[in-house]
Amino acid sequence: MKRRRVAPIVSALVGVVMAGLLVILITADPPQNADTFSPLLGQPAPAVVSTTLDDDAFDLARRKGSWVVLNFFNSTCVPCINEHDELLAFHAAQQNESEPAEMYTIINDDNDDAVREFFEKNDGEWDKVRDHDGAIAVSFGVARVPETWLIDPNGVVRTRIAGELTTGLLDEQLADLRRQFGS
Amino acid sequence: MNLRRASWLFMLVATVALLVVGVVRESGPLTQQDRIDAIAQRLACPTCSGESIYVSRASAAEALRAEIARQVAAGQRTDDEIIAYVEARFGGQVLLVPRATGLDALVWALPVAVLVAALAALTAAFVRWRRRDASLLSDDDRAIVAQALANNDD
Amino acid sequence: MFDDVGLTGALGRSLLLVGVVGSLFGALASVVVARSNDRGVARLVPRFAWLSFAAALGAFAVMEYAMITRDFSLEYVQKVGSTATPPLYNFAAVWSALEGSLLMWVLVLAGYVVAVYHWLRRRREDALGNWAMAVMFIVSMFFFLLSFGPANPFAAGAPGVTDGPGPNPLLQNHILVMFHPPMLYMGYVGFTVPFAFAIGALITGRVGEGWLLATRRWTLISWGLLTFGIVLGSWWSYEVLGWGGVWAWDPVENASLLPWLTGTAYIHSVLVQERRGMLRVWNLSLLVATFSLTILGTFLTRSGILNSVHAFSESDIGPWLLTFFALIVVVSIGLIGWRGDRLHAPGSIDSPLSREGAFLANNVLFSVFAFIVLLGTVFPLVVEALQDRTIVVGEPFFDRLAIPIGLATLTIMAIAPVLPWRKASMETLSQRLFWPAWCGVAALAISVVVGATGLVPLATFGLAGFAAGSALRQVVLATRRQGLRGFLGRTNGGMIVHLGVILIAVGLAASNSYTKSQELTLVTGQVASFAGHTFELIDITEETTDRWIAVRAHVSLDGGQAYAPAITKYTKMGMNVGTPSVRTGAFSDIYLTLEPPVRQDSNTAKIKVFIKPMILWLWVGGFMMGLGTLLALFPGRRRRPTDPVSAPVPDSAAAS
């Protein structure tokens, strides 16, 4: 009778599959957040029609002609609080430019009073826009705050920065874009 | 036909009839809320750990549910189009049901392949066992048995 | 090595070191005894076993002491301890995070080492048992090492800390935190025992002589505890999480399900080994797979590479666990490849339509299901490795594939108990399945009459009736023959377990297919209605303690008792937890959750109402599974060797 050789063959096969699994498990990294990619880059920005905290109308389409910075914000989110000084510095520096970029805060899942209180305590003289039902966040694909978006004078999305802004990052990004697109 | 066989036949007919009744009278067109829930169960909340937006109470999930409710109410997109809309903005990580194309299709194909392979292996084993058992008996043995049975009839 | 941990930390860590050394020498001694049967060395083995157990118990006690006295010099107490946590939850806080839960693992494992040694007392000279002890000691040593090294619960914390955030809020509001993790661990860790005996069998080249059958009892106990632990977890998630579900196919849940599936396959196929002497190598492989899956599952849930709502914090133990897993896999596959053919049994299975055939079908189904769950859980990692993009394999994938498997399982459960060994004729089947089939048709008719729709749920109900009829037939026959003793023994206990599974299948099918939900905005004094029930908001109250602020909406259901779903904000962690309120009924639950935003001084509240059918049947079914396992552990009727095991051959007159 032929000597049975099933066990070594099956074991070898299983071993190969296990080895593959081990390789995958060894090289796996904890899930990371995609930082700066978005399918909206280079596309016209989604429509944003809402009201500001001062109850004025806001329509993103009508801001064409200047660079627009949208900062998605929540008053209890720690990185948002941390980056606030950076936003103040950026806004101040822009006032010295010939064509300053416009800054808008999009309120994410927060109530009006808390936001007003935050800006009273910490300054910030730009408009804060309400986001009813989170519709603006959804149309931009924003899930976590803070996020900062740069939109060019033609209404095209150019940059997305997810997470807390580091010192000088926003100035640098805008300067590069201005050089690239000339304005 | 004896009573038992008739009973089995009756049971078979009754089962089919009951199933038909049950399937045919399935509730009519889904309500809007049902449609919203169905779509929400196919999308993952982008800030949570794999929960669907139907389940999660996070703010991003609420915002997405509101968006889906708006689009379903507008009635202009199909379920798949709404899902594609969300996927375009948040990336592939929001799809809870793996696609049926490309590498993702493996996750559907492999289970079927493994099941087929297992059944094939079992079938091969049964065939081998039957053949081996049959071959264990030689013709001489069969002749002896046949003769003994013939003798017993006396 | 001991930094500035103070006496408690130093004591705890030293005890762990004692455990490492004790297990190491226990393993060495067992190997020596296995090879040379040296009686002198053999006397040392129990001392090492008890030493390790004492060390584990001591370390756990020191940890509890530190937690109870709020000793914030330890980093772990800083992480999960708090002056505000009530005593019961504080006690349970020890196993609420990674390091402490590993300490519990070490304790349970050390306990099993001692228990196995005691169980082996009549077989001390058998090499197989000694090799098994060696394996137990080695696994125990690994976990002691983990606890001593990378997952050290006695590490020094930052100086000057006087309070902590307490355990995760979800682990602070329900008594089940005292039962679900320990029970789960006792089951999970218990699978080490049959694995150790499997390795012993492979090393010594002996599989017969009742060894594997004796370890069947250990497997059954672990399996029963794991089943109970999983059911408790589902109940907890239903009561606490507030989305009305019982199972989310979350990676951590899948990790506990995987060894359960292969364990179930083993419990059935080992009966084939007992009766026919076959499938020996397959059974060994199942035991090895079950234990490997417990280690793999632990790796997946504690290394941080998979997103999960259960996730423990990321830590360094990932590479250690993965190395251990690789080691187990290499050793086991090597041993099976080397010994497998020699252990192979020469018999054959005559016919697919037989008890053996049914058990084989069961094994195929459960193994394929285990493969599916494992595939779905690790597939995101595969895609990430090959194409560098993130995907999620969520509930819809698992649900869709679980349905055909569930239906096939119910079918086998219906037919298998009536199948004789070796070979069945259609005549036998048609005779024995007659009344169970009527039960199935009756169940289907009742379902249709009460208004159930949909092919899958109706098929489930019909097959469930069929399977229940089969199980009941067996129990009725047994009790008729033996009275109350007819409930004992593995066949009859097994039938009770099957009945439990059937109840769970019915509960799942009904609640997954027929749940209705609606969001209602309630205004005090006005009555809203949905699905034949009325809801009236009585008032909204707020309760503040030093741990949390709870806003509750009191809703009167059908004009009667008030149910109070709540949103609780845990002040120290800044986390909002929704707590549902449930009215349990025999055939449906009414499940209320409170939706944000809600304020105490307003007169409106947004609630979500779920009408969930047949949820109670899930818990009753789970209880029956536990009861059945207990009954199955009793010895049943002693079978006389001359009793026939096949069905009587019918007269040719019956074939008309």
> Runs of chain C with pLDDT <50, length 5+?
652-656
Which regions of chain A contain 5 or more consecutive residues with pLDDT less than 50?
A: none
CATH C-level label of chain A: Alpha Beta
CATH superfamily of chain A: Glutaredoxin
CATH class category label of one domain in chain C: Mainly Alpha
Largest interface: B-C, 56 and 60 residues
Cα distance, first to last residue of chain A?
87 Å
Quaternary state reads heterotrimer
Mean pLDDT of chain A: 85
* Major beta sheet summary of chain C: 6 strands, antiparallel
End-to-end C-alpha gap of chain C: 85 Å
CATH architecture of chain A: 3-Layer(aba) Sandwich
Number of helices in the DSSP assignment of chain C: 19
User: In total, how many beta strands of chain C?
Assistant: 10
Describe the structure.
The complex is a heterotrimer of chains A (183), B (154) and C (656). By secondary structure, chain A is an alpha/beta fold. In chain A, 37% of the residues lie in helices and 17% in strands. A five-stranded mixed β-sheet of chain A has the order 5-4-3-6-7, with helices on one face. In chain A, strands 1-2 form a two-stranded antiparallel sheet. Chain B is an all-alpha fold and 154 residues long. Chain B is built from six helices and no strands. In chain B, α2 packs across α3. The mean pLDDT of chain B is 85. With 656 residues, chain C is an alpha+beta fold. Among the domains of chain C are: 167 residues, Four Helix Bundle (Hemerythrin (Met), subunit A); 97 residues, no CATH class. Chain C contains 19 helices and ten strands. In chain C, α2 runs antiparallel to α5, α5 crosses α7 and α17 runs antiparallel to α18.
Question: What would a concise description of this structure say?
Answer:
The complex is a heterotrimer of chains A (183), B (154) and C (656). By secondary structure, chain A is of the alpha/beta class.
Helix-strand blueprint:
The complex is a heterotrimer of chains A (183), B (154) and C (656).
Chain A: H1 6-26, E1 49-51, E2 57-59, E3 68-73, H2 78-94, E4 102-107, H3 112-122, E5 127-129, H4 135-140, E6 147-151, E7 157-162, H5 169-181
Parallel strand pairs in A: 3-4, 4-5
Antiparallel strand pairs in A: 1-2, 3-6, 6-7
Chain B: H1 3-24, H2 32-40, H3 59-74, H4 79-90, H5 106-136, H6 139-152
Chain C: H1 6-36, H2 39-68, H3 75-80, H4 87-92, H5 98-119, H6 127-148, H7 180-190, H8 192-204, H9 211-241, H10 251-276, H11 280-302, H12 317-343, H13 355-387, H14 395-415, H15 426-432, H16 434-449, H17 455-482, H18 490-514, E1 516-523, E2 527-530, E3 533-544, E4 548-557, E5 562-563, E6 566-570, E7 575-579, E8 581-583, E9 588-595, E10 604-613, H19 615-633
Antiparallel strand pairs in C: 1-10, 2-3, 3-4, 4-5, 4-6, 6-7, 8-9, 9-10
Helix pairs in contact in C: 1-2, 1-6, 2-5, 5-6, 5-7, 6-8, 7-9, 8-9, 8-11, 9-10, 9-19, 10-11, 10-13, 11-12, 13-14, 14-17, 16-17, 17-18, 18-19
